[in-house]
Amino acid sequence: MNNTSWKVGSGLFINLWHDSWCGEPLYHSLNIQQNVLRWLPTKVCDINHDQKWLIPNHLDLLFPNLKNIVQKVILPVEPLEDQLCWNHVSSGMLTLKDAYEFKRLQLPNLSWTKTVWCKDVPPSRSLLVWRLMHDKIPTDEKLMERGCSLPSLCSLCLSCSENTFHLFFECSFAFTLWCWLTSVLDFSILKKFNVTIHPPKAPDIKEVIWHPPIGLWLKCNTDGASNNLTASCGGIFRNSNSEFICGFVDNIGHNSAYIVELCGAMRAIEIAASQN
């Protein structure tokens, strides 16, 4: 019942102390022990009369804050049935769709189409890459997994059985092809066919000189990185002799680069504080 709350009508079905009808349960907000509750009224209807709050004197003396908490809840003009509401929707009505959205694993929305489809690449090749990423290429190995009985032999190198990894990376034909593609000189062929080439920009390399701490001090260097899928941070502690003392790596989930950098610094502070 942690994700529900009651809308007070008559109060016949609402537990006065354990149900959430005026915020958090009253036994928690008023710090009432369980052995005391059995001597107290149990229903919300016990503290209202003619749709007005009427708190017994002994309850008012025992719990002075009870009146202020209860009077924030507005009773209906006419007695209505008590309504149990779902806290995560504005209407309070729980539907099958809401229950599914609440229980399912929430993953970030990714613009995966820009990663797979490119205007300079034919759709058939993009589809092949997409199937390769999901290991759905119909190789001999995959066909045998589905019950097909057949001998397996790579039709390109004629030396190994055919599976996805061998076909694209281990095969001698594939190896030669990858070497050709990675050669900068071979891009001249594309230029002859007036194919627009967008080479990646040269990285901006900056020289960073690390200075060790002085004396008995330790220095921690932290960093973080994020992309559309995940984000992580890490840090390394070293002493004045540049010796590794300890380190950490944390998966932050789906967050911005700013949050990741901040989490890395906070984690380093927590580790340093725990060692003192």
TrEMBL record:
| Species, as recorded | Trifolium subterraneum
Instruction: Name the chain's protein.
Output: Reverse transcriptase zinc-binding domain-containing protein
**CDD domains for this protein:** RNase_H_like (cd06222)
| Superkingdom as given in the UniProt entry | Eukaryota
**What Gene3D superfamilies does its record include?**
Ribonuclease H-like superfamily/Ribonuclease H (3.30.420.10)
Sample GO molecular function, one term: nucleic acid binding
Segments forming domain Reverse transcriptase zinc-binding = 95-178
Q: Which residues cross the membrane?
A: none
Pfam families xrefs: zf-RVT
Q: Which InterPro entries match?
A: RNase_H-like, RNase_H-like_dom_plant, RNaseH_sf, RVT-Znf
